[in-house]
Amino acid sequence: MRVLVAGASGAIGRAVVAELVRGGHDVVGLARGQAGADVVTSLGAQPVVADVLDRDGLLRALDGTTADAVVHEATALKKAPTHYRGSGITATNRLRTTGTAHLLEAARLVGATRFVVQSMVFGYGFVDHGPDLVTEDRPFGRARGAKSDAATAAFASAEAQALAAGGIALRYGFVYGQGPASDRIVSLLRRRAFPVPRGGGGSLGWLFVDDAATATRAAVERGRAGQAYNVVDDEPARWGEVFDAMADAAGAHRPPRVPGGLMRLIAPFLADQMIGTSMRVSNAKAGDELGWRPSVPTFRHGMEAGRRAWRTPGSLSSPGPAGSRRTPRS
């Protein structure tokens, strides 16, 4: 298939492009500028420079392009978001609302019949979901009268638009692994500048970046139209134990523990993720319908995979050649 990937030079997008190329697909990657276009080229894909939020410019840039599928991986998150009004969160919410609308229009222009949109398990709500497994039948994007409503509404908007058009939504867990985002967290850990709440925080579904990419490829190839899929590893884990393990793997300081009240003052968005949210997410539907299983089943396996990279500064800050398993995340 010929696949158009938005957000191809960032975060998960790089891993998705590399995985699709490995699978024999012809990939066109959208990037906002020349630096991103160079990343796309290095991964073995054809770059197109366009801003997803600029509808007219996007459609002009894609005029004459054809594709069988469109994948929306565009975000504006350059680091872990800490505040609700931060520029990264605000812009990413727009990419999930307005950006999804623009990309659906672009999909019609290029003749695509498949559309896959990035979502996240946080769309279930920044609350404690109790001991029961969270499946795709659980209400998604529900307003709760909280500061987090804008973020959950953005997830819900992206999904509603995509599913109404016969697309597919992938509800990723917290994505980590070799690449810029985890490199930045490791750098903060080395400076003792990445705190976690006392008690380790709530439990969450985690996802190694390469597994996000293989799930996305599976959705492009085999996903059922109009369906959402949870994409997480096999073991929910608390924030504290995950980042303790990352620090150990990187040879860095374990994160300091701080009182929850202080965490909410210095990083309210991150605190609501770490303290207010707890969920045990099921990946059974993705296994049954997509034939997908995580190659990195737990965060412990993931930290072992990242150990060499994090102990060799800079080794994963740029993309590997097409076909490499080294796929960075932003």
Break the fold down into its secondary structure elements and pairings:
Blueprint: E1 2-6, H1 11-22, E2 26-31, H2 34-42, E3 46-49, H3 55-62, E4 69-72, H4 87-110, E5 114-120, E6 128-134, H5 149-164, E7 168-172, E8 174-176, H6 180-190, E9 196-197, E10 203-204, E11 206-208, H7 209-222, E12 228-231, E13 237-238, H8 239-250, E14 257-258, H9 260-266, H10 268-274, E15 278-281, H11 284-290, H12 299-310
Parallel strand pairs: 1-2, 1-4, 2-3, 4-5, 5-7, 6-15, 7-12, 8-11, 9-14
Antiparallel strand pairs: 10-13
Helix pairs in contact: 1-7, 3-4, 4-5, 8-12, 9-10
Description:
By secondary structure, the chain is of the alpha/beta class. It is 42% helix and 18% strand. Helix 1 crosses helix 7 (209-222). The protein is globular, with a radius of gyration of 18 Å.
Output the radius of gyration.
18 Å
Derived from helix and strand composition plus strand pairing, the structural class reads: alpha/beta
Major sheet description: 7 strands, parallel
- Residues in helix, %: 40-55%
Overall spatial form: globular
Q: What is the end-to-end distance? A: 26 Å
**Poorly predicted spans:** 315-330
| Beta-strand segment tally | 15
User: What is the arithmetic mean of pLDDT?
Assistant: 91
CATH class: Alpha Beta
What is the percentage of strand-forming residues? 15-25%
Q: Which strand order does the major sheet show?
A: 3-2-1-4-5-7-12
Task: Look at the structure and name the CATH superfamily.
Answer: NAD(P)-binding Rossmann-like Domain
Encode the helix/strand succession as letters.
EHEHEHEHEEHEEHEEEHEEHEHHEHH
Number of folding domains? 1
- Counting DSSP H or I runs of 4 or more residues, the number of helices is 12
